[in-house]
Structures are given as structure tokens and as C-alpha cells.
Amino acid sequence: MHYPDPAIEVVAPAFQRYVLPNAAVERIHTGARWTEGPVWFGDGRYLLWSDIPNNRILRWCEDSEQVSVFRSPSDYANGHTRDRQGRLISCEHASRRLTRTEHDGSLTVLMDHFQGRRLNAPNDVVVHPDGCIWFSDPGYGILVNYEGNRAEFELPANVYRLDPDTGEAGVVAEAIEKPNGLCFSPDYSRLYVTDTGASHKPGHPRRILVYDVIEGARLANGRVFCDMGPAMADGLTCDLDGNVWASSGWADPTLDGVAVFSPAGELIGRIHLPEVSSNLCFGGRRRNRLFITAGQSVYAVYVEAQGLPFP
């Protein structure tokens, strides 16, 4: 292995501080069909992610480095996160619902309808400190049978906010072609949303949007955070300094991997991968290991950045 790893590219000087000169990109698993939705469980020292077409959730243990099946079938689950009590929150394509895995392993359906109509196919999800759950519903899981069940859309593609205690839900962002990846800024004053409308609408802008979060309950001042150029972002996450680490792909293979943006939206770094990436999260003992789901594999790399604390 040559150090520093040439897969880690410093685009602007601001990224250099996050690069560890003797840390390399590692592929920790392969053999899936399409990996998505990584989420770190620090208390158990393991990573979960979805293998959507294989209808299962996989688990990688940090101690043993072994991979096992966490849940199969998974209702073609896509994105995951944890709530403030450390429970798994999942977006399911086949059932078109948002679920919570309780500490005893049982499943609670949090939401599957809005205003009397079925959700499309929830995609990505984040939790606010107040306990409310924000999720995107672009409907990829009902477009074809490969990642769910083909069906008609009953609702527009929206971003929702759900209070799991009361069941009250509302639309917080609409008029986005395909709202997909979500992440909050470290102080929860911003919500970042990727628009992957270019997947089905030729010429659609490939960009990440950002909104101001007002009183933890609504969004305002929607604007373009950055333009991905020819590539497209799917999932994304923030570090404690407010940098946005976004998946990148669906263009020139040299853009496959991760694109890192400063809080001002400036591209400062890239992590190049041999597969199109879908999503990413921070984990490890010190939250300084970046886990990336990409194509048929999962990759990891240590960086000198830390993700937000976990419940």
C-alpha cells in the first residue's frame, strides 16, 4: 500500500487537516447487490446496512470483522438511523412504511399513510433532538420490482416530519423532484437534502439543497447548497465542523466515491472508490471512521473528523 492513499484527494487546503497520512480506504465487505443505509451502533460496536435487492439487512462487527444477516426478509429496507433511545428506525420499500425496531426486537409501524393515502417508499431518515423523525419519500421502491414492488404513486415526493409520540405528521419540504438523502448540521439549524431527480428526469440539476430549520419544526429559506456537476449525490452526513460528506456517482467513474464540502458549499476533498457510492455514516470507537456503502460493497476509512454523537 502506498501512503498517503491516492484514493484520498485534497481538493482545497481546508481538507488537509482531515487526512490521516497512513490511513487507507479498506473494503470491509463485498458480495451484496446494492448496499445502502449504513448506521453505526456504538454500544454494540457494529454497523448495519441494507442490501436492498437481496431483501436483507447485514451486520458487520468491529471486533470480529465478521458479517452476518441481521434481518431477512427486511421488506426491502433502505435508509436507517437511530432515535434518541438508540432504537433502529428504518425506511421500508416493500411495505411502504417507516418502522422502529424495539429493544426486544419487535417492530413498531410508525407511519405508512398520509392523509389517507399510502406512502410511496420511504428512503432516508434522520432524527431531531426533540425526538421527531424526518424522512424522505421519493418512491424509488415502487418504480420497479428490483428494490421493492412496482406500484402507482399515491402521494407527491415529499419530506415529512413525524412526531412518534403523537403520530402527528406533516410535509416539511415539497416540490423537490426526488428528495433523497437527509442530514442535519451539527447544531440542527440546517437540513441538507439531496435531489436525485436526474435519475429519471434528463437534464435535472444534480445538487444538494439546504434549508433553515425553524423552531425544530419547519423549514424555510430553501436554497442550493452546492452543485454536484456531472455527478449525483445520494446519501450524506455531517461532521462536527459542519462539513458535508456526500456520496458521489452516476457520472464519470473518476467521480465515484465521496465528495466533501465545507459549510459554505465549497468542494474541499474527495475519496475515490471503484464503485458508485450510495450513502455513508461516521462510526467506530471515536466516531472518526467513515463507513461508505457503494455498489456491491462497504468501505471504511479513518479520518481526522468526527461524526455527530450517537444516542
Task: Provide a descriptive summary of the structure in words.
With 311 residues, the chain is mainly beta. The chain is built from no helices and 27 strands. The strands form seven sheets. Strands 1-24-23-22-21 form a five-stranded antiparallel sheet, with no helix packed on it. Strands 2-27-26-25 form a four-stranded antiparallel sheet, with no helix packed on it. A four-stranded antiparallel sheet has the order 3-4-5-6, with no helix packed on it. A hairpin with a 3-residue loop joins strand 19 and strand 20. The chain starts with 7 loop residues before the first strand and ends in a 9-residue tail after the last strand.
- Order of strands in the sheet with the most strands? 1-24-23-22-21
Element-level helix/strand string: EEEEEEEEEEEEEEEEEEEEEEEEEEE
Uncertain runs are none
Mean pLDDT: 97
Secondary structure tally, helices: 0
Helix content: under 10%
Q: Number of DSSP strands?
A: 27
Biggest sheet details: 5 strands, antiparallel
What is the end-to-end distance?
Answer: 36 Å
